[in-house]
Structures are given as structure tokens and as C-alpha cells.
Please model this.
Amino acid sequence: MGIVKMLSFLVILTVTLHACLSELDMVHRSEPCSETNSRNAYDSFLYHHLNKDIPTNPHDLIEWQKFITKIKTWDRPIQSFFPISEARLVKAGNLCISKKPLKFFTVYIKSKNQVTNVNFQEQYAILGCDIIERTCRPDHFEPNTNDATPDNNKPDCSKAMANASFIPFEELFEI
Model:
């Protein structure tokens, strides 16, 4: 009798964990440009990664501290920002990698109100994008910690955009 109860518990636990993990996976789908219910995801992406007020000097930590204070993201210990000059190169496609390296800032925060370091780097960017208001738009920036490069066997941002609209950065930032 004890074994049957234990097996029943394990089956229920396994099904519950699978259901929970499936729900978590739905936040950032693996398919490029999937439908999403998150209407604020695109605005959040712009605010957190392609903000028009991003400082341009990686050595001016005071300006970066002012910027982080302005956007109220001190709770995020590592943050990445694309300079506006790279806006046209950020294309949509969910968890796809850019065709060429993009330039961006990585800001390191030690504690509240203290930027410890800012690196300006050039690396392949991994973006997550979903269909938001009938347009494929970025909603997630994935860290490229393993220095991944484009793989012809996996979707890249340009292929994901073949039948989708490009992001209207010109309208948003008056480029």
C-alpha cells in the first residue's frame, strides 16, 4: 500500500512540475515571432534596452548612475543597452541570434545607487521577439554568455523577419 501511494505522489508531482515548467516556457517561446498576450513586453524592451536617453560614454559612471536612477532599475545587477545608432540593426525574431555582431553597453551594479563598471562591447545579440499588435517586435534580450555565433541550422533574426515588419525605430526615436 505504501508503494502505491508513493508512486501516485510521484506521478502527481511530475505532472505538476511539467505543467509549471511549461507555463514558464511560454514567457519566452522558442519559435520566432509567436503570438503573445503580453502587450507591454515591447515597451518594456525599449525602456530596458534601447532607451533614447542612454549615455554614450562608458567611462562616465556618474551619468550612468543618473540614467539608472531615472529608469528605476537599480534592482537589476547587470543590464545591457543598445546605443540608438544600433537601433536599425535590432530586428525581431524570438530567441534568434543577430546575423552580425551588434554594439551595446553592459552596466554592472554593485549595490543600490552604485554603478561599478560599464563595458562597451560588440557581440552577437540574442533577442526574443513575439507578435505584439500584429507586428513582430523584440520583448526580451538574452545574455550571450557563451559568445554564441549564428548557426545556419537555427533561426536567425533576418530569417525570422522574412515575412514580418521591421521595428519602427525611426518613428519612436525620430532617427
Q: What stands out?
A: The helical segments are 2-25, 41-49, 61-71, 157-160, 169-173. The first strand starts at residue 34 and ends at 35.
